[in-house]
Amino acid sequence: MRRLLCILLLACGVFGPVHSASESVVLVVRADSAVKDLSSVEVRKLFLGVPVLVDGKLLHAIRNRSDARLDDIFLQQIVAMTQEAYDRQILVGLNRQGWVRPAEVGSVARVIEDLYVDPQAVSYMWLRDVEHNPRLKVLRTLWGE
Amino acid sequence: MINSLRGRILSVLLVVLAALLPFLYLGISRIVQDGYAEGFVNSVRTYSGLVADELEASGEANFEARAEALLDGAMLSGQVVFAEVTDGTRTLRSKISPGLGPVPHSDDFEFGEHGDQTYYITHSFKHDERTLRVRMGFDERPTFERIQSAKRHVLLAITAFLAASIMIAIWLSALLARPLVSLQQAAQRIAAGQEHATLQSQSSLQEVRELNHHLERMRQRLVGANEQLRTEIREREASEHRRLQLERQLLHRERIASIGTLAGGMAHEFNNVMTPILLYSQLALEEVPPGSSLSDDLRRVIAAAHRARNLVSRILTFSRGMDTQQNSVFPLRAPVEEALALLRDIVPENVEIIWNVDDAAPTVSGDPSVVQQIVINLCTNAYQAMRLSGGRLTLRVSAAALPDAPDNVGALLEVSDTGHGIDPALLPHIFEPFFTTREVGEGTGLGLSVVHGLVDSLGGFITVDSVPGEGTTFKVYFPGAARVATELRSVARGA
Questions:
Q1: Which of A32, B106, B265, B330 is most exposed, with the fewest beta carbons within 10 Å of its own?
Q2: Do residues B253 and B345 share a domain?
């Protein structure tokens, strides 16, 4: 019985949540991007579709939807609202202000590719996905435990 | 209850309600809970984000005082139960934070997560090239209470809805079942024999109206079929009765005819015997001296022989049916009145004669003297039945439809007396020759048999109704002259 419990605990350790307690979510751009830093308000504006200019160039937000946890952190930390409120806000911005809906990408690899291609692109991801990538630059930590 | 229509409808509606209402309650509760939770989380995220933004925007000077003021302001809002700013080594916490237990390390991302009734949220912000974190805890209990209150209201509303639905279901089941129950009751009345009870169900439902219409048509056809069957049964019974009557009449006639044939033969032979007796008696009378006793004896023999011949003549009349009648068309009243004129002299004074005649009676065809003889014979029997007791002798002539041919109207002669009547056991024999109930010597028993033969010779028939102690009525039907003419023409064509 005790052996079985141990096996179960081991299995939970192996197949359990992939994010350790020390992981962080960071804001990322291409390494050679002109963007040096963004305040929390600018980040929120960017992902709500509000046009944000740096050196006269419009930044492009990429919403990373590669996992559900990242989605929760995006809603809670970046845009600071619920999914329903975010959807309403995006629609209001689209219809009333003519703002642009942020692009949504379903895999980390694709997010990274998009960042490689576009120097004005801004996205977020787990720190582990970006910390050893010299072609990407971390602007700030958005959330961490 | 469950097998009645109303019970079924009610049961179905209640089962549907019982099946749907829990889902309705759970669905509404879930919507209410999600709505409150979404509003709470949205407010918390927005509020904490604003605090983080404000802290990030704070300058280097007096940062700690500014941060402390912000955290105290957040605590004073009433919804925040915990607020601190940390850089990982130092922690700045609001002084008005209540003494909480150990604060969980991880954030909440959903309302009610971790079950501690506090929503913890952490925002990172940059300050002086350092990444700091503001961590806040929001009280979930007021929102929980609102959710519970809303759920209670929903439950109350659902209960009220259930009660109203049951009332409506009862009313609706009664409303839907009423026309069918009405039809059922009407059908029961019809099944109980009240087939003339109309099926009338007032319903706005087309199906029920059509059902009512079809059932009413079936009822009407049933009523029609029943009436037709009753009519056929009545006709069949009448026909059977008439057939039996005719059969009896036929048997009677055949019997009388055979007796008549026998009597006729005997009378003929007897006549042959009487002829030499009468002849030789007259010859002998011429040869004996008048006034002698032998002469008287011979005269008596001759008188007796004449009476015998007269009797033989009557028997032959019965058996041959008056072959020598004259034929004419005449109203029946004429020979009857002539016969009555003769009878008035011989009918005793204690017998009252009543004479009725209907002028609408059709003319008859035949020999009027035959009718006279019929009337005299019948009336003679009648007044003799009342000779001692007295009474009324009623004669009536009228138009009458013949029983075997209702469309042919003939003349009816009725002769009634109030005498002692005839024993029912004797009625079948009264028309037989020589049948009499009188004493020997008072009657020959030929009167009614002669009447029968005469009526028969005129194409009519005779019936008798008698009640012992009350009287007897003879009814003699004579065919109308027009009918006789028609029959004669058809016979002529057939020949």
A1: A32
A2: no
Share of chain A residues as helix, strand and coil, in percent rounded to the nearest 5: 45, 25, 35
Into how many domains does chain B fold? 3
Phi–psi pair at B369, nearest 5 degrees: -65, -25
Task: List the single best residue of A82, A124, A127, A141 to mutate versus B (max B Cβ within 10 A).
Answer: A82
The overall pTM is greater than 0.95: no
Does B141 fall in a domain?
yes
Residue-wise pLDDT tens digits, A69-120: 999 999 998 999 999 999 999 998 888 888 889 999 999 999 999 999 999 9
Domain that residue B389 falls in: 326-494
The residue length of chain B stands at 495
The A residues from 88 to 127 touching B (CB cutoff 8 Å) are none
Within a domain: residue B170? Answer: no
CB-CB neighbours of B299 under 10 Å: 14
Residue matched to tokens 């759920």: B151
Decide if B401 contacts B412 (C-beta within 8 A): no
Which pLDDT tens digit goes with each residue over B63-109?
A: 888 888 888 888 888 788 888 898 888 888 887 766 556 666 688 88
Looking at residue B341, which CATH number applies to its domain? Answer: 3.30.565.10
Q: Indicate the SS3 state at residue A28.
A: strand
Tell me which residue in A21, A80, A142 faces B45 most closely, judged by beta carbons. A80
State which of B296, B320, B344 marks the end of a domain.
Answer: B320
Cα angle, residue B47 at apex, residues B45 and B50 outer, rounded to 5°:
105
How close, in Å, is residue B124 to chain A by CA atoms?
5
